[in-house]
Amino acid sequence: GPSIDGTYTIIAKDVLKLADNDRAKAPFMNNGVLDATLTDVATSATLSPTGIGNLEYAASGYVAIGGKEVCAFTRSGDVLTLTRAQYSTVAVAHAQEDRVQQLLIYTGENPATIISDLLQTYAGVPASYIADADWQAEVDTYLQRVYTGVIAEPTGVSALISELIEQAAL
Questions:
Q1: 96 and 107 Cβ atoms separated by less than 8 Å
Q2: Rg value, the chain, Cα
Q3: What's the 3-state SS for 92-136?
Q4: Between the N and C ends of the chain, which has fewer C-beta atoms within 10 Å?
């Protein structure tokens, strides 16, 4: 502005809209699937399509296979070396093309750290918009607890933050 008639226009945008459940999910959705059947005792699996391992998966961590079993893994290219039946799941056989989803795990983190990570990493909120030091000081002063969570399926960031706020009574 000003426009021809002398008025100004202000457009305000809510940065937290980036965390809406339909826009931001954590963990990121993986597109890899098993390239062959996996027996209940197998300790390695290959991802398909070719090259997906380097594109979408970390070098190590945890995956949910077919939504049924959690496995620890290390990865080389598209090949996963598995430690089966983690986080109280049971080793079962899996079909070819069962989805392989990397998990998001927080272990002994304070809620301010978790919320900041969800907003920055998964919702794309700039770090400069987050009063991280103030959040940390508030949580350290009044909460003095840490939280552990395993997120096996892509879930809306807003929903995750809301649940944490409820559980921690923030």
A1: no
A2: 20
A3: CCECCCCEEEECEEEEEECHHHHHHHHHHHHCCCCHHHCCHHHHH
A4: N
Distance CA 125, CA 131 (A): 12
DSSP state of 120: I
- Report the largest interatomic distance among the alpha carbons of the chain, rounded to a whole angstrom: 75
pLDDT digits (tens, 9 = 90+) for 71-91: 999 999 999 999 999 999 999
- Give the whole-angstrom CA distance, residue 99 versus residue 101: 6
Distance of CA 12 to the CA centre of its chain: 29
- Cβ neighbours of residue 91 closer than 8 Å, sequence gap 6 or more: 40, 41, 69, 84, 85
- Collapsing DSSP to helix, strand or coil, 74 comes out as strand
Provide the 10 A C-beta neighbour count for residue 34. 20
pLDDT at 1: 66
Burial class (CB in 10 A: 0-12, 13-18, 19+), 99: middle
